[in-house]
Amino acid sequence: MKKKINWYIFNAFNKTLGRLASVIACIIIGKHQINFSPHFSCGDKVIIINAKHILLGSKKNNKTYISYSGYPGGKKVNKVSELIKKRPEFLIRKAVLGMLPKNSFKKKIKNLYIFPNNRHNIKNVSNVKYFS
Question: How far apart are CA 62 and CA 60, in angstroms?
């Protein structure tokens, strides 16, 4: 059974991170379609533009992401206010990963394309649906 892949383009300008991530997670999995089945790949592809203009609320000043390299003194603490300037796509990808189920659906994160500005460089996109 051949399925036509739809592309969704989301404009993240002045959108709340969590609300946008939950909608995107449903589209990536394919739960928005009437023929959803967990054993069949029926998810679509998502492009996010204007990622650096997303709203974070009070978490912009309070939340931190901690990574550890495994070596002594290898702990890195990054504030969200710094990450939104350097790598805004990291925040959205991490939020969507948290909304996906903890099973093989995590691999579908490859269907998410995030761009910090209002232009994307994906070619050959057909069946496009825009969300602003």
Answer: 6
